[in-house]
Amino acid sequence: MNKAYIYLLIPLALALAGCRQQALDGDMPDSVKLEVLDLNLERKPDDAKLLAARARVLLNMGRVKEAAYDINRAVSLEPDNVQYLMLKSDISFANGSIEESYRTLDAADHLAPGNIEIQLKLGEITFYSRDYDRSLVYLSSVTEREPNNRTALFMRGYIYKEKGDTANAVKLLRQVTDRFPDYAPAFEELGILYAIRLNPLAAEYLGTAIELEPNNTNAIYALAMFHQECGDFEAAENLYHQLLVINPHSADAWHNLGWIALTQSGDFAQAVEYFDKALEAAPGMASAIENRQLALDAMK
Fold this sequence. Notes:
The protein is mainly alpha-helical.
């Protein structure tokens, strides 16, 4: 063989070897990881570990269908690998296949009974599918062994809120806010619970949620509604305007500004403008149509 040709091959071989070594570097961009995994799978197309690794990268990149193909191959090669089953469940969930995601996790649970990570994932899946009673069983199993598991505590509190058990909801959500003072969703849900009862604590909890997440339009709207229901219309207006800076297409915020102008300040022309904005955002909004007509009638 020509010596010059050999010298050309040596750098190429070293480069390829370097890529294979870099595959262990978790700081590499996903696009680079994918190139390395593609290369290695060309050499070892039936390597379950490589297939699962590529599936995870593809999932991170939002290429869910390709990820599903790889993880299904990995699971077919190693059907009792719990980590592969958990990844398959995540991919199925991302693909909208909730039932398949649950069945896969259930299979993993039979292989590794009592695994907290699996129990938590089962609790999350049943939570998102609104199977609240089953979700509580899984989530309670997690908090029995990990009393400070934030996700499980929060989801249990949220479920109790949805089921109308306000006492247990408040108890669990306050545990979350006490133990995790930077977790905005718990402050938001507590604030909403107190706002329903027009309890002044609503302003405190919703205010904290907004401090933690200044662009949280749900919390801003809930606090604005609280002030509106309590008769503090100036505070409500300020919050609606704050919300509209973040989301100018909030029909509810425009509508409520129109309602305040119509019923409180008597500025009917301004009310019509606000209701027009609401209808631009939501053309079929019945309350905006009706209230706009009331404002027009008042101007006659």
